[in-house]
Model the fold of this input.
Amino acid sequence: MAQALFDRRRVNGPEESFPPVYDSDEEDELSGSNLNTRQGRSSADIRPIYLKPGLINQANGSAYIETEKTKIACAVYGPRQSRSTTYNEKGKLNVEVKFAPFSCTRRRAPMRDAEDRSIAVLIQQALIPSLRLELLPKSTIDVFIVIIENDGIEGCVASGSIAASTALANAGIEMLGLVTSCAASVVNEEIWLDPTVNEARLTRGTLLLGFMPALGIVTNVWQTGQLTIEEAIKSMELCKERCLDIHSVVAQALLDSAKEQ
Amino acid sequence: MASTSKSEQSYVQASLLAPSPFREDGRGLLDYRHIALETGVAPLANGSARISIGDGPHGIGGGIPGTEVLAAVKLEVEDVQTEEGVDVGRVVCSVSCSPSAYPNLTNNALDDLQSDLSSVLQQTLSHRSLHPPNLSILAGRKSWLLHLDVVVLTDSGNIYDALFLASAAALRDTRVPRTRGIEYKAQNSRATEEDVPMGDAGRSGFDTRALKKSTDFELTDYWDEGEPLGKSESWPVCITLNLLPPIHYLDATPLEESATMSRLLLFFAFPNSSSGNSVLQGMRLLGPGETDLQIMKTLIPLGEKYARDLKRGLDAKFHSEALRRNPATRNKMAR
Done:
């Protein structure tokens, strides 16, 4: 077996192959790293969100979210009977994330790896405080997320959480409120919301907040990199305000989709 | 970790929320169990450390096994051009959980737990802001790949604090072997001496031939362990705040963990030991409980205070460990 690239279920390409590097790609990277002010939007603006629930008919609930270069489809199956024989008085939430092989700049092998699971754990953490799992004993709710195009891990987790919460609402699962999520990154002394993958390279620390505006509780916090305590608290405040705005987008999308049916 | 009944959970919660709170081993809410640290436990590794929170049968604790974690650092040479190497070197962390530590988990659940612990460690410690400066060997050719492998031997609660304490101690204990670049010259060296113009007059400022001649490297001294890993004081410590509104407490035992609905992990680093300012190196919220943003804003500065105390203890113990090990080796050499 030659390395881990040998995939028995697929027709493999040649053993040694490299993706082509285009001159224009290198130029884009260099120009992005020299800027101190944000290009195209202000530091507190997030990218416009397109959210449509109910695109996948086979699933109990589904949602598709698109924000510039991040495209994620989410399907919810459940509540359905749990496969385990032990009695669980609370329902289980199972989140699975999959990157499409064409979603990143370099082709990703279709096999599951550690990065898939770490994103799934973060999205699960964002959703769990919002669901009324004690009403669903012996049941499992499966949330399947496919990332069709990926523009940074923080963007994936934030958009994935929003899509998953919308899909759960679309499936009619009882919840305490909708969960919305927003990421912030600190570049020099400014806090930029919703960073793209190029902006995330310039930053020295990013923070992601999952928030439930209906009850005003935080469901998920994830911070990496170096921030001072004041910067972290300020980022959380800014993310929380943005989450309130995203909540109205999600509510409107769900309302429109319910009216269509 | 084992399942607990609702009455057990409510019993633990009620005693923690009581006006004078008490815990099963009589500690205060903010007291840690006894932490034991030993460095240099893996002689084949470049650096290693063993942490035990809540001593086992031999110490205080009454025979209840504590949380024992063993961390070891192994350095590997990586080629920048043909493999995944990066010029400045890479840091890769992984956690493996011994099945004896989690006898109730299936293989799949154990794999998932390992993967989760590894990703928390990797996301925090491999960030470029913590990257040590002396991990490159030959610019553009070879660099060090630092493998930090942590093994969980027993888990008796507070696993994240133990993982990060052991990692910080192992990384501080790491020594990077000193290397020097070498080049290979052809047999008829007389021909090359005539070709290269000698003397400053013939050398142009743009002559970069001297730079890329090193094609390989060697260890300057086989028996020398090397220089300490750079930035050794700035590895972060983890504080796990177990949240039970309106109170919070530290260092939970497994029973207390099963009764607590949410935990806040805070990772603090103190890059400048003289000025003493702190940076938040990571933050993570775990658990199905409800958390208020206002409460979180008060918790973060408190966590920084606890982290500072923990770091001070770690520094003091690390220094005494270094003193313990150095005189011993000096005596051995003298014999």
About this structure: Chain B has one domain: 23-178+229-334. Chain B touches chain A through 32 residues (CB under 8 Å). Residues 262 and 287 of chain B are 4 Å apart (CA to CA). The first strand of chain B starts at residue 35 and ends at 39.
